[in-house]
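Thread title: Can someone regenerate the structure for this chain?

I was given the following input by a collaborator and told the matching structure tokens would be attached. They weren't. Posting the sequence so someone can regenerate them.
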Amino acid sequence: MSSDTLFGAGAALPPAYPEHAAWGTAPKLRQWQSEALEKYFRDSPSDFLAVATPGAGKTTFALRVATELVDRGVVNRVTIVAPTDHLKRQWADAAARVGLAIDPNFKNADGRHGGAFIGVAVTYAQVASKPMLHRAKTEAARTLVILDEIHHGGDALSWGDGIREAFDPAVRRLALTGTPFRSDTAAIPFVEYAEDRDGIRRSKADFSYGYGQALRDHVVRPVMFMAYSGQMRWRTSAGEEMAASLGEAAVTKDITAQAWRTALNPTGEWIPSVLTAADKRLTEVRRTVHDAGGMVIATDHDDARAYAGQLKRITGESPTVILSDDARASSKIEEFSTGEKRWMVAVRMVSEGVDVPRLAVGVYATSTATPLFFAQAVGRYVRARRRGETASIFLPSVPNLMALANQLEVERDHALDRPEKDDEGFGLEDDLLEAANREDKASDSLAKQKFEALESQASFDRVLFDGGEFGTGGEMGSEEELDFLGIPGLLDADQVGHLLRQRQHEQQSRRKSGPTVVPADEPAVVDHRRLTELRGQLAKNVSAWAARTGMPHGQVHTELRRQCGGPAVAQANEDQLQRRLQKLQDWFIGKK
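Best answer:
Regenerated them for you:
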């Protein structure tokens, strides 16, 4: 079947839109959409699962299918099932632009929708609460059911059973997802599972279009991950003071988690330093993408408000704050999407609920680290409006996130028979993912009582892109960091890779040409325990001086580096740390 019959004749089939089109209304099909459409109408299946990376255009594909099925008389009713109320309205708006009247305000108590509509948009929870009502509506007409982000159909046993009960009588079911895997082994309704060579049942898509292929087709943006480390100090529930470098490989998972949480604490210096760097990056991107926006993903409401206050001090502009219990959340998202404000802050954003194509810079300020959540979150920044737009995501330099960032192009299927905690990382912090989806504030409060963040400093670590790592580290505001923050915001993937390699080479050359003399008394093998001890001692003394003088911790460290020389604390050697400790002692006893 030729796509020329859809929405007018003569439609070309480029890999990507030649220019920006309103969401869901593109007059031309991308190549993957054309191929998927041809396969759909060639096979005419009752069930069809289309897996396409976030930002690829699943909505446009689904609405083409729906319109053609209506025009052919195959169906006379369309039901769209989405994860959130906000997405229901997005679907209804997109459908209206292609001539399909969908009611997103339908409530179960209404019983039936208005005669002016061909169908309704509902949530998975709405269907699961009254499955027999929706079954009756499905049986009453020749119904196409579009199941958006179908993996949500397995969120609870009752949900899966309700979705099956409600839509089993449908003439056609079209399932869509950008992340066809889950962090558990709950079966996804209306998805076919087939055994692989190891006897494990895995989800089977009828058509797949992954991030790597979409990137090659210039359908999605290339993503640079800007990783930041730094020195952290906190007090455990037992009253013991601990110190560690963020992302340090030699520490336990528990210490990594506590250091990570310390970094995200809004009272420290790590978050404001990283927000400042991210805003510098946004300024650079806006030189060529004038309406580019940024979003911070926060852990809870308190952190979100604190981050928003810091962004206001940094930029002079109040960011848009999206909280789960805000009745105006959906309208705020729409206002931000169509406006030109710089920043938005969202709480543990269930990422399908936030779709803002102009987002180009992100700050991953949450401790949720499942592959599902991470993939969905990154998907909010990759929607390409024109060729050359890039995405930059700032994140803590911790092993979990580094691994996920390096595996962005890995395509996964949902497996039913694997252990719930396996080696693929599917089981990482499942409790945090559940908390992200239900906004469990009680869990947030309980977790915060387990430790006390005392101090945090940030330092630039590296850039991750296309499976590679670039940069030699450096202090905040250093030439090494600015080399990467200043990369132009309008480059294709090949240009980004070339420029990153060039910056890497320049930094290595600068280091080689610098002083290489090693102090004679420095041991041949670095004593990492001694370094950790000195860093912790320095952090305590800096905290004491800050309490005495009112000077922020970060300024104290900056002044110590100015007077004593050397890099940030995380990169300082024993001699440099000793000099800074001596300088602090001189300050305490009044020496100049």
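Confidence is low (pLDDT under 50) at residues 1-26, 410-449, 516-523.
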